[in-house]
Amino acid sequence: MSKAGYFIGLSGAIGSTVTYAASVRPAVREATSHGDDVEVTRHRAASCLAWAGVVLLVAGYFQLAARLARAGKGMPFGDALSPARIWAFLRAPAGKDAWIAQGTIHLVQNTVLLLASAVLIALFLPRARRHLNAIALTALPAALAVTLIAAVPATAPKNADKVLDLVFDQVHFVSGVVWIGQLWTTTYGLFVLVKILLVLGMVAAGAVNQFWLMPRILKARRDDDASSLLHLTLRHFPKVVWGEVALGIAVLGVVPFLSGSARSEAGSPPAVSTGSIFAVGALLVVTLAASLYITVKTSDALARRATPTTA
């Protein structure tokens, strides 16, 4: 989740500054009149950029804490949020065969991230909005530098392929946040967009399960220890269950249509679907059903072993 938030924040910062530089700024500059429309456009653009800075700053902090939590022997994410522990992580010496400490790379990256965020957040101030062009054009290269610095390897790449992988990854990422019109101008892109929205729905459903559904299932288990976990869930929460089943089936239903690429769809011909592709989809459905069955049985056994606690 922290990595997803980080890329959302970075995409927002890069995408919003590029949009302003490439579209909003030229349109405002070439406007035949400078009345209310121009001012409203500038005001909304400034607000969008300012909020992009807030999201980038918060997401960057959580991502840095997640890096610390995964480093070495690892630690709980809550402990990794400590500024003192983060500072120690950033100052850690270089490892064996490393030409630069990984912490130093993270330090430089997050310093640039802090700069980009601060520049954008400054647009909340009315006085700063008078310099909107300069601020946006300053934040743009800084936001791009955040992802480029993060790609710097701590150890020298062993061959040219590794170097090209790093370069192409960055080109792919930056291109994606600058131009996403493949998502609604091609058949492939539309299916990708639908799948992204469905997966986001499943992520939201996971949060509902963790923070709302599971406590209520445990309460229902204490009230009726004889019934299985599956029966308890279907009896008390049928709408949640069938809603999540529909989301899961919808995601798997989209997968067979994700063949080829947006670039190959000159004129947006219909997506190609074959029997083998649908067979793979059917296999995924069977695998999902088996995993859900195993999960239910395991959760049921653990729930029966759990000892109720009293205040």
Number of helices: 12
Distance from N terminus to C terminus (CA atoms, Å) equals 33 Å
Beta content: under 5%
Task: Please state the overall shape, judged from the principal axes of the Cα atoms.
Answer: globular
Give the low-confidence spans.
Answer: none
Order of helices and strands: HHHHHHHHHHHH
Instruction: Determine the structural class based on helices, strands and strand pairing.
Output: mainly alpha
How is the biggest beta sheet arranged?
none
Task: Please characterize this protein's 3D structure.
The protein is mainly α. The protein folds into 2 domains: about 1-180, no CATH class; about 185-305, no CATH class. It has 12 helices and no strands. The protein has helices at about 1-30, 35-70, 75-80, 85-90, 100-120, 130-150, 160-180, 180-185, 185-225, 230-235, 240-255, 275-305. Helix 1 (about 1-30) runs antiparallel to helix 2 (about 35-70), helix 5 packs antiparallel against helix 6 and helix 9 runs antiparallel to helix 11 (about 240-255). It is globular. It starts with a helix and ends in a 6-residue tail after the last helix.
Keywords:
311 residues; mainly alpha; 12 helices; globular
Can you lay out the helices and strands and say which pair or pack?
Blueprint: H1 2-29, H2 36-70, H3 77-80, H4 83-90, H5 102-121, H6 132-150, H7 160-178, H8 182-185, H9 187-223, H10 229-236, H11 238-254, H12 275-305
